[in-house]
TrEMBL record:
This is Serine/threonine-protein phosphatase 2A 55 kDa regulatory subunit B. InterPro entries: PP2A_PR55 (IPR000009), PP2A_PR55_CS (IPR018067), WD40/YVTN_repeat-like_dom_sf (IPR015943), WD40_repeat_dom_sf (IPR036322), WD40_rpt (IPR001680). Gene3D superfamilies: YVTN repeat-like/Quinoprotein amine dehydrogenase. It comes from Platysternon megacephalum. The lineage of its organism: Eukaryota, Metazoa, Chordata, Craniata, Vertebrata. Keywords: Repeat, WD repeat.
Length: 446
């Protein structure tokens, strides 16, 4: 596995705040990270309802290494806090997920969602402005009709580049429970949104109607045994999607079979090892993320302790299982008491599906090479490395003598956690969200 070097840390926080991790507010915590289809743009959402888009620097002959740098391109408020008066519920502005649409013209489009409402945003550039209106002056005020003596043809004048974000569609009032996933279909005409008990299918052109394609809500809520935790469309087949559950199962559904996909086409579940059975088994087996590989052949799932890779043609067990932080198995009781056991970690593929990445505690994140079976633990931290310094692999010591370069499992900081990561679609560039900081790493540049 190639070594990743620190390229530049991009600190994601509002202006006029002190550059100290201890001074961030709850609203600054990054809640989602997503590259667009070309990798030229990277979007982050935070708990304050804001979306920040970073754009990759163009290559210059004088400084070819600057090709990998990302700078702020646009910042806008996507969601505001709301209040449901009928249910006396506060609706947080936190951005749960961002998904890009493929670029069709000069503008960019992305979906963002909080717990209840999905919005389609258009992000466009403007470097010219019209001047010479007939009925308005240059300040926009209406002119006196008696003063208009001749017809003018408006002209476009150059202006400073301005990036505008405008909401083009608002998809609301379709979810009773909190939205945990959105996924754009490969037909680029539809997308789905999933909450704890239902999955809805939307057309991008229709905001007042959606189609319920999965409904697992029982007639009596006391009989509820599982909830939907994540869902995603197949990257190539517009009729196929998967969703995962809190019971550690994955269901593959085909929309051609019936309008309501309550009956799955395939059911992926690994039999439980009785020797590992404990009070926490059900909690740690809950799947927090599910992702199709770029090829569409595999699906990857993340539960609390492991990442698993499943072949679509084999339902009874995963073909690969990677231990993310097995040293925490003895700490489950304290992790339950401080609620960390309910943390929802994401996982991502690299562009060729050969390496997978997921987060852990102490600002650690893990990479697993599927070909060589090697793995590495790296740390996203401003304290331990300077820009352009090579990241050193970290090791966690479980017991016995601790080496100089190792960290004891008892010294791990569980308040520092890498829940959200993203991988450039074609290059070895990764984005890692550590609380309110966004780190971007890339392969070592010679």
């Amino acid at each position: 596995m190639k070594c990743f070097s620190r390229y530049l840390p991009y600190i994601f926080r509002p202006p006029n705040t002190i550059l100290s991790c201890s001074c961030h507010t709850e609203a600054d915590i990054i809640s989602t990270v997503e590259f667009n289809h070309t990798g030229e743009l990277l979007a982050t959402g935070d708990k304050g309802g804001r979306v920040v888009i970073f754009q990759r620097e163009q290559e210059s002959k004088n400084q070819p290494h600057r090709r990998g740098e990302y700078n702020v391109y646009s910042t806008f408020q996507s969601h505001e806090p709301e209040f449901d008066y009928l249910k006396s519920l506060e609706i947080e502005e936190k951005i749960n997920k961002i998904r890009w649409l493929p670029q069709q013209n000069a503008a960019y489009f992305l979906l963002s969602t909080n717990d209840k409402t999905v919005k389609l945003w258009k992000v466009s550039e403007r470097d010219k402005r019209p001047e010479g209106y007939n009925l308005k002056d240059e300040d926009g005020r209406l002119r006196d009709p008696s003063m208009i003596t001749m017809l003018r043809v408006p002209v476009l004048r150059p202006m400073d580049l301005m990036v505008e974000a405008t909401p083009r569609r608002v998809f609301a009032n379709a979810h009773t429970y909190h939205i945990n996933s959105i996924s754009v279909n490969s037909d680029y005409e539809t997308y789905m949104s999933a909450d704890d008990l239902r999955i809805n299918l939307w057309n991008f052109e229709i905001t007042n109607q959606s189609f319920n394609i999965v409904d697992i809500k029982p007639a009596n809520m006391e009989e509820l045994t599982e909830v939907i935790t994540a869902a995603e469309f197949h990257p190539h087949h517009c009729n196929t999607f998967v969703y995962s559950s809190s019971k550690g199962t994955i269901r593959l559904c085909d929309m051609r079979a019936s309008a309501l996909c309550d009956r799955h086409s395939k059911f992926f579940e690994e039999p439980e090892d009785p020797s590992n059975r404990s009070f926490f088994s059900e909690i740690i087996s809950s799947i927090s993320d599910v992702k199709f590989s770029h090829s569409g052949r595999y699906i990857m799932t993340r539960d609390y302790l492991t990442v698993k890779v499943w072949d679509l043609n084999m339902e009874n067990r995963p073909i690969e299982t990677y231990q993310v932080h097995d040293y925490l198995r003895s700490k489950l009781c304290s992790l339950y008491e401080n609620d960390c056991i309910f943390d929802k970690f994401e996982c991502v593929w690299n562009g060729s599906d050969s390496v997978i990445m997921t987060g852990s505690y102490n600002n650690f994140f893990r990479m697993f090479d599927r070909n060589t079976k090697r793995d590495v633990t790296l740390e996203a931290s401003r304290e331990n490395s300077k820009p352009r310094a090579i990241l050193k692999p970290r090791k966690v010591c479980v017991g016995g003598k601790r080496r100089k370069d190792e960290i004891s499992v008892d010294s791990l900081d569980f308040s520092k956690k890498i829940l959200h990561t993203a991988w450039h679609p074609s290059e070895n560039i990764i984005a890692v969200a550590a609380t309110n900081n966004l780190y971007i790493f890339q392969d070592k540049v010679n």
